[in-house]
Structure formats: structure tokens, C-alpha cells
Design brief:
Blueprint (H helix, E strand, L loop, with lengths): L2 H13 L2 H8 L3 H15 L4 E3 L6 E3 L1 H28 L4 E3 L2 H10 L4 H8 L2 E3 L3 H9 L5 E6 L8 E16 L12 H4 L4 E4 L4 H10 L8 E5 L2 H9 L5 E4 L2 H4 L4 E5 L7 E9 L6 H12 L6
Parallel strand pairs: 3-4, 3-5, 7-8
Antiparallel strand pairs: 1-2, 5-11, 6-9, 6-10, 6-11
Helix pairs in contact: 1-2, 1-3, 1-4, 2-3
Length: 297
């Protein structure tokens, strides 16, 4: 039995056609047949049942069991290959969502040595959902992640670092600016400018929108937080955002808390695969993140 045999069987279990599998891998049909026979010899049982016409096949009970496990086995081989390749190249890939990155670096402005240390990693930007997928597939080795609920996954070690609420941000010239707190329903009287889909903020927005009959209008999506802040301060629209450094430094923005029943929480955590062997640099980075003061002064 080898990895290629498992790849052939996985495709056969999905397609139920030797012809289609042979075409997919550009090999002969006997190649697929011999691979299945090797697996059947290894496990000592039939994995497929052929009809008398040989035009169609079905999986046996044992074949269904192997199908249920083989995808995970193949995914783990891919993750292993990537981990070995990263180690060979002495290159550690760290996921860093832009909003969390700005918060981390704002806390480290006076420590140039740590900033230089972090810059030696290969920093991978993107939304937390995208980075979580890359982490699970082994494309990155370690990641900071944001979420609207604490992340729990059987394959991950996760540590919660900080949590903060979402706010409505408006221009100082917007009528909402005078309010001490508002409901999300009140905020929907104005168009929203949001981060592009794939960012955790979109999940918080959807959670709030799902409570309402009247759906809010989204005027623009941007990946650049600075642009969102500038448009909101110009009273083009409003936004749902966490209170992070870029917005704190902008003139003309007013932060309004949501009423208790509408509060959404942004959880900041780091995560890595339970199967990962962390090098000294990643362990040092974890220590830096653990010791960081996440509360705004």
C-alpha cells in the first residue's frame, strides 16, 4: 500500500468509475484496478463490489469505512509535506490578520528589537477565516485569529489573548453622533461601509442583521481599514468595527456602543496544529504575545 493507492481509491469512492478515475490521473484502468487489489490485500477484505456487467461498482461496508477515513489521511500527508518543506527552508509562516497586526505593532512601537524579530517571519495577511483554513491545511505554521466566538477545533491548540466589543462608528456630523448608545436597528437607518467578506467583522454584521426584518444597506466593501475610516469620517456612511489603533488616530470619528442585547464580541487568539513541532522562534513569539498588554491605555 502507498499514498498513490489511497489517492486512487479516494477518487474511485467518489466517482464509482474506473474509467473516470483513470482519465483523471492520466493512467490506465488496470493501474487503478491493481491499486484497489493492493488495498484489499492489505486489509484482507473486499472494498468494492462489481456488478456482473462490470459497468458500475459500489463500495462494500469496509470500503465505506476506508472512504470515511482516507480523505483525512491524505490531508494529513499534505500537511506533513508542507511542515517538512517549511522546516527545510528555515521559513516559518505566520498568519496575521491586518486589524490584529495593527494592534500588535502599535503596542511594540518602542521595542524595535522585537519588531525586527517578528519581521524575520514570513507574515501572511488575510481575513481570519482564510487564515484558519490555511492553518488547518498546513500552509501556515501559526496564526493570530479573530472570531465572534472563541475558536474550538479538535486539531488545534488555541489560546485566547483578548476580547473587545464591536462599536458603531459614525462621522461627528452624523445625527447618531450625539447618542450614548444605540441599537443595531437604529444604525440601519444609514448605509454601511464594511470590510470585505472573509473578515470576522462580516460575521458580526451578519449576526446582527439576522435579528432584523429590514436588512441594512451595505454601500461599499473594502479591504483597507484606512479607506473605510476616511469615508465614514466624511459622513458617506457608517461602519461596524472594533476599536483599534487606526480608528483611534482618525479625526472626525465618533464611537458609539451598541445596546447590551446587540453587543457582539471580537475574540483575539493564536492557534497552531496539535501535530505541529514548534521551533524556538515560534515559542518566543508566543511568549511575546502572552506578555503583551492588550488593554488600551
Amino acid at each position: 500500500m502507498n499514498i498513490r493507492d489511497l489517492e486512487y481509491f479516494s477518487a474511485l469512492a467518489d466517482m464509482l468509475s474506473f474509467t473516470q478515475v483513470a482519465h483523471k490521473f492520466a493512467v490506465s484502468q488496470p493501474t487503478i484496478s491493481y491499486a484497489v487489489k493492493r488495498l484489499e490485500q492489505h486489509y484482507g477484505c473486499d472494498l468494492i463490489a462489481r456488478e456482473a456487467s462490470h459497468r458500475s461498482i459500489t463500495l462494500t461496508n469496509e470500503g465505506e469505512i476506508l472512504k470515511a477515513h482516507v480523505r483525512y489521511i491524505l490531508d494529513e500527508f499534505v500537511t506533513l509535506d508542507r511542515a517538512i518543506e517549511h522546516a527545510k527552508n528555515n521559513r516559518t509562516h505566520i498568519g496575521f490578520p491586518p486589524i490584529i497586526r495593527s494592534k500588535v505593532f502599535s503596542k511594540l512601537l518602542d521595542d524595535k528589537e522585537i519588531i525586527r524579530f517578528i519581521s524575520n517571519f514570513h507574515l501572511v495577511s488575510g481575513g481570519s477565516n482564510e487564515l484558519l483554513s490555511k492553518l488547518l491545511s498546513g500552509k501556515i505554521d501559526f496564526s493570530l485569529l479573530g472570531s465572534v466566538n472563541p475558536i474550538i477545533h479538535p486539531n488545534l491548540h488555541v489560546k485566547l489573548l483578548f476580547q473587545q466589543e464591536f462599536f458603531i462608528f459614525v462621522s461627528k456630523d452624523n445625527p447618531l453622533a450625539a447618542k450614548k448608545e444605540i441599537s443595531f436597528a437604529q444604525a440601519t437607518e444609514y448605509p454601511f461601509i464594511l470590510l470585505e467578506k472573509g473578515y470576522t467583522h462580516g460575521l458580526a454584521f451578519r449576526n446582527l442583521s439576522d435579528k432584523l426584518t429590514k436588512k441594512p444597506e451595505v454601500q461599499f466593501y473594502f479591504s483597507d481599514v484606512q479607506t473605510i475610516g476616511q469615508l465614514v469620517s466624511s459622513n458617506i456612511g457608517i461602519t461596524l468595527m472594533t476599536d483599534f489603533p487606526v480608528f483611534q488616530e482618525m479625526d472626525g470619528l465618533v464611537k458609539i456602543p451598541l445596546v447590551p442585547e446587540d453587543k457582539e464580541i471580537f475574540y483575539i487568539q493564536y492557534a497552531y496544529l496539535k501535530s505541529a513541532v514548534l521551533n524556538q522562534d515560534v515559542q518566543k513569539l508566543m511568549g511575546i504575545l502572552d506578555d503583551l498588554s492588550w488593554v488600551e491605555e
